Structure formats: C-alpha cells, structure tokens
C-alpha cells in the first residue's frame, strides 16, 4: 500500500462522521466478492441491465468508436462487459492494445493473464495497478495516439460528485494524442493489513437513497455501519484509536455517497463541467450508455 492510500485511510478514520474510502474494499478478496455479487445476487439488477444494453446497441456504439485501437478499462475487475467492446474492435483491427486499470494489483494480474489466454496475440495487454487519476496521467504521458477509447463501467457512480468531475476532467486530458460481505471486505482488510481490531458485530449495516431532481446534482446511496453501543477500536499501523458512541456512523465511502443515479440532463451537466459533450446515448429501464467527446 502506497503512502497516498495510507493518507486517505487516515483522513477517513479521523473524520466525523468516520468513513472508509469506497476503493478500499477492492483488494483481491473484495474484487472476488464483487464478482460473486454481480453474477449471483438476483436483486442486483445493474450488471444484468448493463450487459443487456451493451448487447442491444453494440453495433451503434461500434460506429462511434471503431477507429480506436487502444482500449483503456477503468476499474476493469472481471472484464466480462469489456470483452464485448474488445470483440467489436477486433472486427475492424488486427490487433488492439488493452489497458486494464484496477486498484487491486493481485486481482488485476490474474484477470490480465486470463484475458491474454483468451485473445492471444490479438490483444496487447498492459495492466496498470494504480488509482484512476495516477493511471490516467501515466497513460497520457506514455502514449501519443489520439484514438484512445476509455470505458468506465459503473465505477463513476461510486465516487463523490466533485471527484466525478475531477476524474472526467482527467479522462478528457487523457483523450489527448451488493451484499453485506462485500461491504465488510474493507473492515477485514483494515484488520489484515493495518492491524485493525474492529468487531463488526458491534455495528448494524444501514443504507439510504438520497434523491436529487436538480440538473446540477444527482441521486445517490449512502451505506454505513451504525454503532449499536459505545465502542473503541485501534488501527495499530496507522497509529489510530477511533471511538464511537451509540448511533455513530462509519461510512463505506467518502462524503457524497456512492452508486449515483442520473437523469440524462444530470449526466449532460456533469460532462459539461469537465468540458465534455454527449455524442449519442442509449437507455433502457435502468442504465444508459453514453458516448462523449472533447469540446
């Protein structure tokens, strides 16, 4: 774990209310649990509708992006959906450069090897195990092509709203030349890597949907553990002692919620703040696919 990650953990655990950054759950085990949620949880509709929408409009999306021969996959995880795009690009290119980006280096290495085995020499796989902003800057500095296709499935919605703008702005710059066990994975990782002794039985997991109708905001979900009674825990490697009174909350994400829900006008407003504009979009009952360009 690099120094910046430790700084972010300390920031959240010293805050009031206390939180653990959403990205922290995505180590190898958390990433595996996320895949289980996507594939087996019958209540988690988002993944299924994403796949359905992509399948329905894949030919139309390909008309917009077929000139790209480099595919950057932010938060690649298990790249099942991305493979639909890869297959389309390989229908017009003999070889495609695939750059999966994921914060979990161990899980990324495994999935990179898996996808190499599927596509062989048709796919030049260049994994980057970094946080998104760092990875995007590296890609921008190391490549000169202006035909990059960047896909970002679902991860945008798990970031605070202003951070979404930061990431979208960095994406623009780069365009140059769930279940309980899943949420608790960050608690287990704190114990394993940082010497934490948090007893999750002292807490109750809760969530809420916060609805915003303004074009300048979006709806989102808050997820947290709420203390059942007064308790104290230590994080030895961060030199921290965190105290909770009954009813205090420990959020599983930064301020501003996760799993954001947008209207098209909210998406348009968000993209406009990052100097991006919508080329075309497609929607079904629950999700949208949006192709954007630089302004």
From TrEMBL:
Entry annotated with the keyword Disulfide bond: no
Keyword Amino-acid biosynthesis: no
One MF annotation (Gene Ontology) recorded for this entry: methyltransferase activity
Top-level taxon of origin: Eukaryota
Transmembrane segments: none
Domain Histidine-specific methyltransferase SAM-dependent, first and last residues per copy: 7-176
Matching InterPro entries: EgtD_Methyltrsf_superfamily, MeTrfase_dom, MeTrfase_EgtD-like, SAM-dependent_MTases_sf
GO biological process, one term: methylation
Swiss-Prot/TrEMBL keywords: Methyltransferase, Transferase
Protein name: Histidine-specific methyltransferase SAM-dependent domain-containing protein
Species lineage: Eukaryota, Metazoa, Spiralia, Lophotrochozoa, Mollusca
